[in-house]
């Protein structure tokens, strides 16, 4: 099963936006993630609907953070992305005729549900502000510079 990296990618973008005063274009954000600007716009649309980001068209336009980082959790962002699957494992066959596979699915389903509840609970406990603080402490531990962020945003 393919991994869904949208949550990780969007969190990356949000933390970079938090460091910026001016809007950042979809093209620049896409380059940071190694993807297409259309993918960025699609991913950010749900965040805009929730008021976490804003976007402006035209010269000088782009994406900006529009929320208080301390009021938005990782679960909020996950939900704004449409609640993508959290687990990369699943049933071999969702509707098996085999009784053995039915028993296996039942046992696994309970485990999947418990794991997802635990993960969603943890995501609900972590705010963007906590993530931003972690970034800042990593920057300080590295000597107070974060050249990578500047390179990401000035490559175009």
TrEMBL record:
Output a single Gene Ontology CC term carried by this record: cytosol
Matching SUPFAM superfamilies: Winged helix' DNA-binding domain (SSF46785)
Annotated Gene3D superfamilies: Winged helix-like DNA-binding domain superfamily/Winged helix DNA-binding domain
Molecular-function GO terms, alphabetical:
DNA-binding transcription factor activity
- Can you tell which superkingdom this protein's organism belongs to? Bacteria
Tell me the InterPro entries matching this sequence: Tscrpt_reg_Rrf2, WH-like_DNA-bd_sf, WH_DNA-bd_sf
Protein name in UniProt: HTH-type transcriptional regulator YwnA
- Gene symbol here is ywnA
């Amino acid at each position: 099963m393919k991994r869904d990296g949208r949550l990780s990618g969007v969190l990356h973008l949000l933390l970079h936006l938090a460091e910026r005063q001016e809007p950042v274009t979809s093209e620049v954000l896409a380059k940071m993630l190694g993807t297409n600007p259309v993918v960025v716009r699609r991913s950010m649309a749900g965040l805009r609907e929730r008021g976490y980001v804003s976007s402006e068209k035209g010269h000088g336009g782009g994406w900006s953070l529009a929320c208080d980082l301390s009021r938005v959790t990782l679960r909020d962002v996950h939900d704004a992305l449409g609640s993508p699957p959290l687990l990369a494992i699943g049933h071999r066959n969702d509707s098996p005729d085999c009784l053995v596979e039915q028993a296996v699915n039942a046992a696994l389903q309970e485990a999947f549900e418990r794991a997802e509840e635990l993960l969603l609970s943890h995501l609900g406990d972590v705010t963007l502000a906590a993530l931003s603080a972690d970034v800042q402490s990593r920057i300080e531990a590295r000597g107070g510079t974060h050249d990578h962020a500047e390179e990401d945003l000035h490559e175009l």
